[in-house]
Amino acid sequence: MTASASTLAPLPARFARLVKIEHTIFALPFAYVGAFLAVDGTPSAHDLLWITLAMVGARSLAMALNRLIDARIDARNPRTAGRELPSGQLSVAQVALFCAASLALFLAAVSELAPKTHWLWPIPVAGFVIYPYLKRWTWLCHLWLGAVDGLAPVGAWVAITNHLPWEAWLLGAAVAFWVAGFDFFYALFDADLDRAQGLHSIVTRFGVRGAFAGARIAHAATVVCLVVAGLGLPVGVLYWIGVTVVAALLVYEHSLIRPDDLRRLDAAFFTANGVISVAFAAFVIADAVS
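Now predict its structure.
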């Protein structure tokens, strides 16, 4: 779609593209995982509603801040130059206002949840602000992104129970390693341009094979964290089937691409990871309510 044609799209559609609303599928299911495991059953409609709104607000804020801070970098990259800010489909003022609205939604939702969330909320917001700058300094930006996304099940758990047991942290670690692992793959899209612009990633630091090795280690750690968390929780067979499905899908994801053949990188990144989050959440929820 050309910039001029995209500008004619309704404003809500442009904001939806800005934050890639369809990629909410990566994070939101894991918030539900934390919520259902926290109560070993079905959370109240009140808690599920406000957790959902908090996640929508938080993720929209994170994505919009990333686009805002990276607008100049995106403009120099042919793959991202058509995004809403560099192409002029949205203005800086519009995106800044959207960030403020997203933050307001997040804070309003947090105010309806357990007391600890009322003073823990600056932690994810600080993570959102810091993340876009890290690629300018260190390849560890991938791990930071994973840690921020790993707050989804942790936040949902504390939002309902007002407590954070070690099992909640292990679920968060599982998500963190999972996200960092597929972000190692995502860095392959822009390796040459990152080098040219002096940006940092696991690929610019350790090469393509280093990115593959890092992804394998991170995704193995994901499965280990899910197993250990499950051992500490009163879960049933459906949880363990879910962990097995996650492991199988991660193996499949890694089978799609090789260091010398990245043709199916899109399928590995988007399709496989979307299925992983939804499938695991479905098994966990079914286990919790059975």
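The longest helix spans residues 202-231.
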